[in-house]
Amino acid sequence: MFSRAVHLAPLPLRIGLGIIMVSHGQPKVFGASKEQFPNTVESLGVPAPDKLAHLVGYLELFGGLALIAGLLTRLIAFLFAGEFGFIILRVKWSKGLVQGYEFDLSLLAGFLSLVLLGGGAGSLDRVLGID
């Protein structure tokens, strides 16, 4: 019975992960985090922290919207997987799994699943023939 619905598997992943990313990106682009987030990125010792902070904010906001629509799903999910791999290793690893990187690991697993699955049914990727 469920094997016939396997093509729908990416749909709840795309929508759920997209909503999470939009909710994290919106304050970085338009809200209170807009001023604070570059300082957080700078504290990680990465090059060009202001530019990277803006890039991450826009990726989270517009990449999240793209995931919801299923547009460029594999590419966007790959970029998010890189972001969360970085967050786990550079920011959260020392805190351990529980109360540390467990949520980020869940997101990473979801993004990697979308890299493998693509946009699936109901995605713009499928409509445009790029899935």
Question: How would you portray this structure in words?
Answer:
- By secondary structure, the chain is mainly alpha-helical.
- The chain contains six helices and no strands.
- The model has no long low-confidence stretch (mean pLDDT 95).
Question: Secondary structure elements and their pairing?
Answer:
Elements: H1 10-29, H2 33-43, H3 49-69, H4 73-92, H5 97-117, H6 124-128
Helix pairs in contact: 1-3, 1-5, 2-3, 3-4, 4-5
What are its keywords?
mainly alpha, 75% helix
Structural class: mainly alpha
**Biggest sheet character:** none
Basic shape: globular
Radius of gyration: 16 Å
Give the end-to-end Cα distance, rounded to a whole number of Å. Answer: 24 Å
The run of helices and strands is: HHHHHH
Strand runs, count: 0
Task: Please work out how many helical segments DSSP would assign.
Answer: 6
Uncertain segments: none
The residue-averaged pLDDT reads 95
